Amino acid sequence: MANSPSGDSVTDRLVRILETFTPTRTAQTTADIGRRAGLPSSSAHRIVGELVDAGLLERDDERRVRVGMRLWELATRSSHALRLRQAALPYMERVQQRVREHTQLAILEHDEALFLERLSAPDSGANITRVAGRLPVHASSSGLVLLAFAPHDLQERVLARPLAAVTPETIVDPAALRRALAEIRTLGRVVAPGTVDEVSTGVAAPVRDETGAVIAALSVVLPRDAETQFALVELHRAARDTERALGYRR
């Protein structure tokens, strides 16, 4: 890709434009996109216009710009994440029906827990997770499971950087986090009260693919003082069923 006068490539600029969209910022003006992407106004208008023409972005009735259906279509073709979600969804539905709290599926992506699905009941408790949203791996129950089974170099990279306290109970001491990860690997699950939301407890279990590698975490978000054993039993059952659907045989 050709570089701009500032030295960034076309791909860099496209990615920066798309990254300005978030779960809570779904429609923007072109001027706002350019400002958030750090692009000159002329470049932002030109690139956004080209993306609209290609169907990757769309304009609404107020001339604001949204992510286009064409981008969603292309992103889901032959998607590993889509295959994983399809394999897990029937068993997530069973967990959600039995536990009656938020049930979630997450993968490790760019050193964060990226959530592919969330099922909730009308009376489910507090939860800050969104589909296509992210949480820190050292704070969320899903993230802790994913980090515990991640490659060693990724673990060391996370442990070497400052660990932000999402709540007063988030593990921010590297030595304590290292001990917690070892325990998760031994037990095959995590119970994380108050680490990402003080009123909730996250419980999570790993999901393996056909090679035996941990590729996802299934989790349930419970009220802070709720009993966790029943949810863990249901999560482990769902994880094993998902693994079988993916071709993993113990």
Automatic annotation (TrEMBL):
GO terms for biological process: negative regulation of DNA-templated transcription. Gene3D superfamilies: 3.30.450.40, Winged helix-like DNA-binding domain superfamily/Winged helix DNA-binding domain. Coiled coil: none annotated. Keywords: DNA-binding, Transcription, Transcription regulation. GO terms for molecular function: DNA binding; DNA-binding transcription factor activity. SUPFAM superfamilies: GAF domain-like, Winged helix' DNA-binding domain. Residues 8-69 form the HTH iclR-type domain. InterPro entries: GAF-like_dom_sf, HTH_MetabolicPath_Reg, Tscrpt_reg_IclR_C, Tscrpt_reg_IclR_N, WH-like_DNA-bd_sf, WH_DNA-bd_sf. Residues 70-248 form the IclR-ED domain. This is DNA-binding IclR family transcriptional regulator.
